[in-house]
Amino acid sequence: MLWLEIGDKFKGYEAPGKDGGIDGFFGGRYQDKEGPWRFQYKCHLTERRMAFQSLKTELKTELKKLRDEKPFVLLTNAALLPQEASELERTAQNYFEDNGLRGVQFGIWDSAGYHDFT
């Protein structure tokens, strides 16, 4: 799907095992955002609210793995309420501020197609 959406410069890492904390990488421009991009996919086959709680915990761990990627996109099959998406965005922004990460943008692409960046 991401190859079709953002182009053939997208690299997906789908092999089982340790992936170094990155499920996809894109080095380029998409819409008005410039890479390098990090994509992290979190699939949850549980009740929606439980999936959100898991995402909150996992996001904190994934943010610690950021290197020089500027757009960081959390991809998930979980349907998020607007306030839940906002909470995840606040978590990411607080992490960026607390750790002096300037210019990092966070996006959530969920099952509803939420494609916004903060």
SSE order and pairing:
Elements: H1 2-6, E1 10-12, E2 24-26, E3 29-30, E4 33-34, E5 37-42, H2 48-63, E6 71-76, H3 82-98, E7 105-109, E8 116-117
Parallel strand pairs: 5-6, 6-7
Antiparallel strand pairs: 1-2, 2-5, 3-4, 7-8
If you had to describe this structure to a student in words, what would you say it looks like?
The chain starts with a helix and ends with a strand. Helix content is 32%, strand content 25%. The strands form two sheets. The protein has a six-stranded mixed sheet with strand order 1-2-5-6-7-8. It is of the alpha/beta class and 118 residues long. α2 links the parallel β5 and β6. The chain is globular and about 35 Å long. It has one domain.
Helix segment count?
Answer: 3
- Give the overall form: globular
Order of helices and strands: HEEEEEHEHEE
> Which structural category do the helix and sheet elements fall into?
alpha/beta
Radius of gyration: 14 Å
Major sheet attributes? 6 strands, mixed
Strand order of the largest sheet: 1-2-5-6-7-8
- Into which percent range does the helicity of residues fall? 25-40%
Could you list some keywords that capture this structure?
globular, 3 helices, alpha/beta, 25% strand, 8 strands, 6-stranded mixed sheet, 118 residues, 32% helix, two-stranded antiparallel sheet
